[in-house]
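Figure 2 data, in text form.
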Amino acid sequence: MPSIYYDFGFYLGVAALITGVVTLLDKIWWQKKRAEAGKIQLDEKGEEKFPPFIDICRSFFPIIFVVLVLRSFLYEPYRIPSGSMNPGLYDGDFILVNKFAYGIRLPAFNTKIIDVGEPQRGDVIVFHPPHEPQQAYIKRLIGIPGDRLEWDRGTLTIIPQCRNAVNVDGQSCDPITIKSEFVSDKVEDLVPAGNNYDTYSETINGESHDLIYLEDNAKPRRYHSLRERWTEVVPEGKYFAMGDNRDGSLDSRFWRFIDEEGIIGKAAYKWIFVSFTEDPVLFGKHLPKGISFSRAGAIE
């Protein structure tokens, strides 16, 4: 039985269902009953005055339906909730998620009904993680089903699953080596504790993006990717993802694999950055204190 995700899309779907059913019943049944009983009232324009609840449903259904379609099948807004994707994405960035990049899915159930494409290594994806299925995370996709991943202190080797010289997608079965290249001992100002990190660059599928790692002489911490070695094999129907903030991200290295049906879509565009108060202000919440459009653009 597919999971139900109780997110905004779920409640939007419930609202669309209720207002749509009420609107339909009024058109085919209740309106006729009112006319037969002589209970139809007209306003000053000569148009029917509907009962309050029916009037609300008839007014809001088209709006809710359009928003539901746009949000469920085209683009969904998403706020970056942490610094796990520094330095490319900040806590406070608002982005648009391409919902049709990997297929058309049913709202709330996230079940794919039309296949459009498949997630590719290097994509930044938004998804429901296995340990918190009602939450939405954002990470960079590293391994696809069948991949053997070998990590050696900043160098990633991907060995695709193949039966012949090429795999089922027509791509080479040769091992893919991705090495993190040092760029600078400076990081962007908006990266928390940036003085403890160095900036690196990584290229996957011909596309480059920046990463940050703990500097070599940093004090021992729970994570220190440039000193680690590990191996994983990605099962069928699963995906492996990591944050670009390699030593400040809880990801597939810790809670393992992403389910295919948990993928929401591909992160596509940054459109606004909102800074928040450092301390809670109202009802324990951090309030916005600044807005900027300077970071708007495509996500690498």
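Caption note: The first strand starts at residue 41 and ends at 42.
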